[in-house]
Amino acid sequence: MEIVIANKSHTKYAEIICETIAESAKVRGTGIAKRTPEYISTKMENGNAVIALDGDVFAGFCYIELWGHGKFVANSGLIVHPNYRGKGLAKKIKHKVFAHSRTKFPNAKVFSITTGLAVMKLNSDLGYKPVTFSELTDDQTFWDGCQTCQNYDVLTRTKRKMCLCTGMLYDAKANEKKESKKIKEKVFKRLKHIKETMFLKKDKKVK
Q1: Record's superkingdom (predicted)?
Q2: How large a percentage of the chain has pLDDT more than 70?
Q3: Residue 69 and residue 154: Cα distance in Å, rounded?
Q4: In this predicted structure, what is the pLDDT of residue 20?
Q5: Among the residues of the chain, which ranges form H helices?
C-alpha cells in the first residue's frame, strides 16, 4: 500500500473517488456535499490531495480546501474503498493529509465539519477541538457547498449556527499554549444523538 501526494497522473481515479464518496454517504444515510470528477482532478493537479493505492488499484483519498484567503484549510472527502476498510487506512490517510496541510499552509487553521464518528475521533487524536460554526471560516463559498447536502435545510433553519455536522478546529498557536487533550468517542456519540433528536424529529413532525 502506498499513500502519496496526488498529482496530474492520478486524475484517472477521479470518477471512482466521487462514486465511492457518494455510495458511502448513501449507505450511512448521512448528508454530504457532492463532488465532481473535475473538481477532484483539479485538487490533484494542484497538489492538494492525498491518494492511497494498492499497486494501480484505488484504495483511499482525501483532499485539501483553502478558505478565507488562506486563513483556514479543510481536509475534505476522506474516503476508503469498501475493499480496504477495517485495516486502519483511513487513519493513515488522515495523518498524511493533515501533515501535508500543516506543511503547505503553516499559518492556516485546519477545520472540519462532519457527521462521521470515526472522523471525529481521528480529528480529536490530531488535536482538533469541537467548536461552534462561528469559529470556522465565514467564506460564503464554503457554506454554499453545503447546498447539495440533504441536511442543508437544518443549516439554513438555524441561520448557520448549527447542523447535524459537528465543527472541529485545529489551531496550532492555541495548541502550543496549552496541552491538547483527546476527547472520548462516547462524547461525540452523545453530541450526535442530541443533534439528531433536536433536528430530525422536528423534520418528521413537519411532514
Answers
A1: Bacteria
A2: 83
A3: 27
A4: 93
A5: 14-28, 37-45, 89-104, 117-126, 140-144, 152-157, 172-177, 185-206
